[in-house]
Amino acid sequence: MRNRASNTLSKGKIRQSWSKYNLYNMQRFRSPPTTNRTFFQQKWSAKAASRAYHGEQVREGQWKRMFNHRIRSVIPMNASDLAADDGSLVSSGRGSGLDKGGKPAYQTRPTPYTHMTFAPLERRLDVAIFRALFASSARQARQFVIHGAVTVNGQKMKHPSYLLNPGDLFQVDPDRVLYATGHTKTPYERRQGRLAQRKAKAQSSEGAEEAEAAPETEESKETAKEETKETEKEDTKETLKALLAQAKSVMSAGKNTLAPQRKQELRGFQQAVRRVLSRSESSTVLADSLEAQFSQLTLLLKAKRSEKPEKKDVKPRPEDAFATDRGDAEVASAKKDTEATASDKLSEAFAQATLGNEVDASELSDEEFDTLKRALTQMRDNPLDNSKTYSTPWQPRQYMSAFAFIPRYLEVNQNICAAVYLRHPVARPGSAEVPTPFGESIATPAYGWYLRRRW
Amino acid sequence: MPPRMQSRSVSNTLLPYLTSTSSSSSSLSSIPSLSSASSQCLSRQFSATAAPQAQTKLRRQMFEWLNNEGSVFKHHVPGETNYLTRLKQRGGNEGSETSRPFPNNQHFISEPILSEELRNEVYSRVVEQKKSVRVVSVELGIDMKRIAAVVRLVELEKRQRAQGKPLALPYARAVHEMVPTTPLAEKGERQTYHEPINDLPAHPLTGSQIFYPVPESRSFNRVEAGRVFSGAPAMEHSEATEISHPSDLAEKIMEDPNSIGWVGKGANARQILQPADVRIPHPHLVAQERDRLAHPNERLAVADLQAKRLERQDALEKERRERLQARREKKTNIVSPEDSRFDYRIKDTIYTTETTGVDGRGSKATGRRYGVPHRDRTRGEVKIPTRVEA
């Protein structure tokens, strides 16, 4: 199917997309004028505007078959109201309740039924993926489905037009979601990725050759080990200092730091941690859990907590990764955003830390421990990896927040990129669940257009 | 298309600048090719007219907006929504404005999602503390369907973590920063309700306007209104006096779902429309309120009554589920041969006019019938599945 859903500025149509063109179009969109226009013309232009957004990938005939004039709605009931009255109060007198100073017994807001015209389209798999914030446009969601990256109830589903049933669980490949919602790679990153790929290829071919010559090198390795043991004692202090400094620069990099510079810092920290951890006896530390890595790191560096601020102990945080992430969320956001409240606190802590370091390097304050740990957490959850299709460390793409909302009829688990279609969207007094950028003046004529059968 | 030519003045001013600052880090690679190309252009000119402007007016306006007013949308502020409506609300000071993503649509609100802690709390209450979905729904103010979905999703997440499958943790964090969330209440605080849990679906029968004369002296309640909407005759007086409040019906129907009457014949037969007290997801809340009204000063007694009611309801529902399951198992015979990948479910065919049609060749009938093409071969058959079994 040819993609006609380009975001042209001259037409100014609103699409199901997160692009900045679309944001601009949405911002400047005005309802078409109604004066001096026939009712047919009004309905036509309303239909054209709303169909450009709702199911633009669906043929008109297909949509007309899906359209239903009956619209689902609910009324939230109050248990105490129901208990107080069995309905006879409302129907008393001449059928509409007794007068109480001209006030009706129940005050309700009008239900925006016509905003729900395109509710049947929200059942489509591609639209639901876009609504769950797993793709940056309905077109991209459609592509994910066609390319086989989506499962419904655990089975691969290749039809974007599959209509979800209430209770269906759909899941998208997390890598695709990160690609769709993340920053695109810069040419620099792309080149780095290529270089890394080339290097890995060369190493794998070299590794095969080296395997034959391995026994000879073992002796030299052992001598090297002895040497490092001697030097180890002396440089623990300095390593700790350097690690801390690196963690600090990693966590507090402002938005004006150049991307390559930041990447270098991150890579440096990663290497430093790896170097320290490789000294430990157990060979599996590098693959171990974060807790194990952290405790090993502190053990190797002979770092102690300073005795003075005894607020909390080195208690193991909950295993659940999100809980540990919350803390570093503040920092991560401060890093890339204009708000710098969290980083203020950190930089203050570091100012104290640098003063303390001159006295004794192996005594760490709580904040320092936290920072070290946070840097480690971030390295694990959001690593620098140029082999990915998106810019790493992952960060949300620009202008995503203006489109970020999740309608009530979906329950989404972002960690595994899965969502459940709970029920069909409904209207309720004062609000409609179908996300549509158009107001009453477009929704009602568009509904009127489809009410009449023209085929 | 032949290469477009830069206007002379531009390339003249650009050239020395580019060559002099070749040491600067930006666009290092592009410099040699660019300078050679422009020097070529200088040497031979084909046209005296200047090339059209690089940007149209609309593009210029867009980038102007994006760089000024629109620049706030580039990045989000954690814990706050960042929708287009924030541009217009500068004058006003309404709090609800910030949760509307579309400036033209007054009726769409970006509703909060469950926070990670609340989600885990739901899971622990249902799976670890073994509370019923109905009870957890009332405690936390979350729809029962959503609770079932949350349990399913958390279960799936745990399995994927155990298997070491890739997760989208940074993405999840970013989304939770951008979208409003319902937090889990601190210990001792009251949990804020996530959504209305007692939604009554509007029944299509109630859409019609009916003129139904009733004497003013008679009280006309919801039970009677439901009968009028579905075209059922009025209840006998003795039957009507048994029901003191419509919520009595809820308990009666819970115990015996077949007690709902029917109207119409054959294909037009339908159940009588029940009052809202029966059709809402949590009818027991109405009963609890009635207990409270009846015994205003006995909180403990009311709570005790409610606990017993819920217990009975759970037991009844469980019994019904088991009965259904048993009946289904009785109907189908599952044969699973050894060293086979498949189970065979064998059902008895019911051969009546309803299932196979008058002439025995109905489109829904089972097996091969003379003159009826296979489903795959019929015209206009849609092959896209309509359901995927979980």
UniProtKB/TrEMBL annotation, chain A:
GO cellular component: mitochondrial small ribosomal subunit
Annotated keywords: Mitochondrion, Ribonucleoprotein, Ribosomal protein, RNA-binding, rRNA-binding
Biased composition range(s): Basic and acidic residues: 218-237, 306-339
Entry keyword annotation includes Ribonucleoprotein: yes
Location relative to the cell: Mitochondrion
Keyword Ribosomal protein: yes
Biased composition (Acidic residues): 207-217
UniProt xrefs under Pfam families: S4 (PF01479)
Region (Disordered): 92-111, 183-237, 306-343
InterPro entries reported for this sequence: Ribosomal_uS4, Ribosomal_uS4_CS, S4_RNA-bd, S4_RNA-bd_sf
Domain RNA-binding S4: 123-183
GO molecular function annotations of the record: rRNA binding; structural constituent of ribosome
Function, as annotated: Component of the mitochondrial ribosome (mitoribosome), a dedicated translation machinery responsible for the synthesis of mitochondrial genome-encoded proteins, including at least some of the essential transmembrane subunits of the mitochondrial respiratory chain. The mitoribosomes are attached to the mitochondrial inner membrane and translation products are cotranslationally integrated into the membrane.
Similarity field: Belongs to the universal ribosomal protein uS4 family.
This protein's name: Small ribosomal subunit protein uS4m
Automatic annotation (TrEMBL), chain B:
Cellular component per GO, a single term: mitochondrial small ribosomal subunit
Ranges for region Disordered: 355-380
Pfam family, any one: Bot1p
GO biological process: mitochondrial translation
Origin superkingdom: Eukaryota
InterPro entries reported for this sequence: Ribosomal_mS45
Coiled coil: none
GO molecular function per UniProt: structural constituent of ribosome
UniProt cross-references to PANTHER family, sorted A to Z: 37S RIBOSOMAL PROTEIN S35, MITOCHONDRIAL (PTHR28158), SMALL RIBOSOMAL SUBUNIT PROTEIN MS45 (PTHR28158:SF1)
Record-given protein name: Ribosomal protein S35, mitochondrial
Organism, scientific name: Penicillium flavigenum
